[in-house]
């Protein structure tokens, strides 16, 4: 007898992810799963995005971390509800953790829920959380070969936010090569080139996000 | 009945890691396991270290990646034997993969074997490969809170190489805070502040590495 642990774990996860997806849909709440390496700037992107959009959209955040609640504290300073999940060593969020966090968020009153995954370019790409869109965030400081070396996330993602473009003059990263490599893996990717530090390029991202949330909500049949 | 999958996997891994450790010891070959986020600069650090040390030490490299053999090709250009392991989606190297790679390296003729793990700050920290020392590499572009958020690696490591200090003027990273946070988790850490781009700070790292290899080899009882 062979026990297919990996397959069973993913099947159990997918069943709960489907329930989460139904919960998000029933409240017309657009769920975004942000995935990146540690330190690519997911939290900074969230802070900027909240400041830009919270006047016209009602936002909530689920923060995933192995330890600490530093990120949830950063988010709450912007007046947005944030639920912290500590995975206690776990290298990714799974659908069950998110289902528990959803109980602490008033979904009915939210237009968009951001789920900030554990900083890890590998494992989070494999676990469906019930989100409407997976977004890859990558920093130019990581180098332009990363989509080739970590292809699964870029295949699964709807968009990639290339962050820290203000560092381009001081690194060997070739921005065009980074963008083309990501698109060679997934030609449907929306690509945004931004600096969360200077604000450059973020307007296009805000617009795409708000448009995507609206289009998704209007596609839901009640 | 409860199947403790995690425990069993780690026990099986530890048994093979012990065999690897014995193989390294029998050849007085110092094994170094490099762990970092994607893009922190492990391969660049290896390239610099090889250039600095290969005249006086015989070096070999095991390259771990999910996909591609880009890094092994970079290493071979420096005239050093490099074995590529592709994990095929796996988020870390394990002791079995390393044992297979060892068969392709002439350990008896090597003083130091570097094992470059998959770019991941989480999972590789949990898997013993049979190395003599685990080295954490972190880039200042990742921010100064990373040791707090990913503590396991910093607890397990013998040293941390803080890379890309040439980017400090252009980031919000507080170098002293990064160093102190790492040391608060593991006061025994050797800390190196370097730039693999400019070469700054690397001499101290080379010296520490060569000294550590020599001390370790002389501590082995035949």
Briefly say what this structure is.
The first copy, chain A, is α/β, with parallel strands linked by helices and 222 residues long.
Commentary on this structure:
The structure is a homodimer of 222-residue chains. With 222 residues, chain A is α/β, with parallel strands linked by helices. Chain A has a single domain, classed as Rossmann fold. In chain A, 40% of the residues lie in helices and 18% in strands. A 7-stranded parallel beta sheet of chain A has the order 3-2-4-1-5-6-7, sandwiched between helices. In chain A, strand 2, helix 3 and strand 3 form a beta-alpha-beta unit. In chain A, helix 1 runs parallel beside helix 4. The radius of gyration of chain A is 17 Å and the shape is globular. The relative contact order of chain A is 0.17. The interface between A and B is large, with 38 and 38 residues.
């Amino acid at each position: 007898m062979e026990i297919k642990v990996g397959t069973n774990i993913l099947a159990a996860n997918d069943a709960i992810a489907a329930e989460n997806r139904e919960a998000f849909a029933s409240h017309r709440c657009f769920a975004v799963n942000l995935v990146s390496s540690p330190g690519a700037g997911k939290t900074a992107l969230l802070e900027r995005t909240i400041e830009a959009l919270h006047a016209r959209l009602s936002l909530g955040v689920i923060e995933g971390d192995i330890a600490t609640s530093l990120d949830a504290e950063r988010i709450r300073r912007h007046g947005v509800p944030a639920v912290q999940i500590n995975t206690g060593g776990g290298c990714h969020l799974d659908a069950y953790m998110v289902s528990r966090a959803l109980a602490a968020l008033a979904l009915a009153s939210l237009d968009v829920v951001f789920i900030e995954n554990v900083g890890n370019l590998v494992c989070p790409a494999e676990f469906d959380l019930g989100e409407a869109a997976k977004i890859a965030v990558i920093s130019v400081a990581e180098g332009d070969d990363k989509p080739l070396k970590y292809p699964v996330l870029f295949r699964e993602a709807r968009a990639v936010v290339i962050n820290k473009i203000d560092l381009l003059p001081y690194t060997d990263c070739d921005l065009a090569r980074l963008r083309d490599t990501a698109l060679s893996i997934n030609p449907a990717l929306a690509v945004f080139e931004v600096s969360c530090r200077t604000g450059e390029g973020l307007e296009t991202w805000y617009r795409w996000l708000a448009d995507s949330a609206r289009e998704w909500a209007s596609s839901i049949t009640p």
